[in-house]
Amino acid sequence: MGINVVQANSQASSISRYASDLRGIKSSLLQYKSEINSAWQSREMKYVNQALDKLNIELSTICSDLDSLSSDIVAVAREIQQEEEAARRAAEERARLEAEARARQQQSTTGKKSPFGL
């Protein structure tokens, strides 16, 4: 059983959608940060802003990782499919050569002409 490239692409698309959803959350978080800073003035805001900035950086990293993972899934699925196709062609060629060799051997022992025209 070979790799299911369609399924791999579907999974990669889902991961890309998750990254997009996280970007939306990140944008909302930045908007909330701006609104909080406008409405609330205190010494504690320094720590709130630091926490929100850290969360923003983490979300950016996760989005990048998800995008990279999605791209890797598609590329690896294609690569595996190509390797499987090459292995299938090699097996077919090997089987053809073995059949020709058997036919030549049979021809030499029986004196009959090979069905392969050899």
Automatic annotation (TrEMBL):
<dbReference type="InterPro" id="IPR036689">
    <property type="entry name" value="ESAT-6-like_sf"/>
</dbReference>
<feature type="region of interest" description="Disordered">
    <location>
        <begin position="87"/>
        <end position="118"/>
    </location>
</feature>
<feature type="compositionally biased region" description="Basic and acidic residues">
    <location>
        <begin position="87"/>
        <end position="103"/>
    </location>
</feature>
<protein>
    <recommendedName>
        <fullName>WXG100 family type VII secretion target</fullName>
    </recommendedName>
</protein>
